[in-house]
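User: Structure tokens for this complex, please. No commentary.
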Amino acid sequence: MSPTTAKEGSLIPVKAGIGLRFQHHQAVLDTHPAVSWMEVHTENYMGGGSPLRYLDLIRQERPISLHGVGLSLGSAEGLDVEHLKRIQMVAERIAPGMMSEHLAWNVVDGAYLPDLLPLPMTEEALDVVCRHVDQTQSFLKRRFFIENPSTYVQFKHSTIPEWEFIAAVAARTGCGILCDVNNIYVSAQNHGWDAVRYLAALPAEAIGEIHLAGHSVRNLPNGRTIRIDDHGSKVCDEVWSLYRAAIQRFGAVPTLIEWDNDVPPLDVLLAEATRAQAILDEAAEDGNADAA
Amino acid sequence: MPTLLETQRAARVSLLDNDSRRLEALLSGSDHASCVDIYRNTVLFGLVKTLQLSYPVVERLVGADFFAAAAEEFARVQPPLLAYLDRYGDGFDAFLRDFAPASSVPYLADVARLEWAINVALHAPDDAPLDLRKLEDLALEEQARVSFAANPSVSTIALSYPADALWRAVVDRDDDALAGVDIDSGPVWLLIERGDAGVTIARMERDEWTVARQILSGVALSALNTPDQIDLPEEIARHLAAGRIASFTLRAPDQSSTTEDTP
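Assistant:
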């Protein structure tokens, strides 16, 4: 596949982008940074007022990807159709280049627990997620992309490796995959998985976007080390290496720098995006060399 | 094998009620408690942070530690019902009114009530004001049955304490003004809305507020209780001109039900 061609369901350029947070709304409008696309959390733009007005203006200059955090695709009790309608309203306003959510859950018994909570990797959970992805794609009339999670626990009753689970969701529903390379690294380190094997198990043709972010490291009382996906620092060297491996495996893919805690000045995010872009450019050059 | 719903309910009990026995029995690996803590901290920290963003003046009045403890307790007993956190925090004023550790700050719940109205105004959808031609097209008989719907940013609230003066002093970081607020000066009647210049808080006279509240909450015009000194057409015109009214319906003559939507 040519590195300039977007995947089905995506109009996002195959370039490095940044996650847009409220702290940078004004700076983006003032400085018009040379970044060809941005991604926002859908739930932050469900009301009226100034956030949407900023996004309207920023959208005029570049495509936007809508990345949800609250749809709870893994909820046993079913999808909240009202939440789907709110997502649709944002989509109608912004005309996003791409839409995505997480392989996770956060609603049970009508209560919303604001985190991306881990699913047991069971046949039941796989059926539930596939049903909800089908429902979402039918409702929004477009292809949706599902992101692999970072996790800190595993369930005894899990029977399917996570990489097989997400590949199965893509195969059954036709959805795309948003491959979060940092999440793969974090989970692989936390659970003793082989990150390269994880990448190898994902269907390259389904990968429509890559996420990169920083994480932190904490020592537990029992001496174990755990990595926490807190999006509060630069991408670490090990994740950059895994990113190179991902690009080798998938080809060039739109790549996003995420930063949600201790959000730094816009320049810091742009520098991280420049670093990702250099790796994408190398892949494009390699591709051209192969073609010649 | 536990079902997905059983697993998720066990997680809820662990994260909100701090009882991890059922959840930890389902986990493999070691040091479950520390790992579950990571999720619990994210959930509770996220909810406390959401409440901090909506109630910054309450937080300044009671201090960060007190606020965090109150907010966490509120989050545990009233977690959000929607995955749309701009709407989370309604009812925190009632919670604070009954929160024993806050009983020495009797005006705190009123400040929270005001901050929620401000929050609603900030995040309300961008509804267009009513097209006045739709009103002009009504027959005289229909005009009496008009029931207005306010722009979603508008709130009318009556408070026992001068929470607006406290709010202003805290936002302006004006300690002298804060010290000068007469807590016992009596009730205030407020109208909060979002305009082009941002959110405004206006103090009203009691009678004027009473009529505004009825008009803006959808009481049919023929059913309004209007004090003698209030010029009703003038009041309605003022709210229309200010863009506070988004739409109207026509009530049945007995005022018990809506019979017709505006086009």
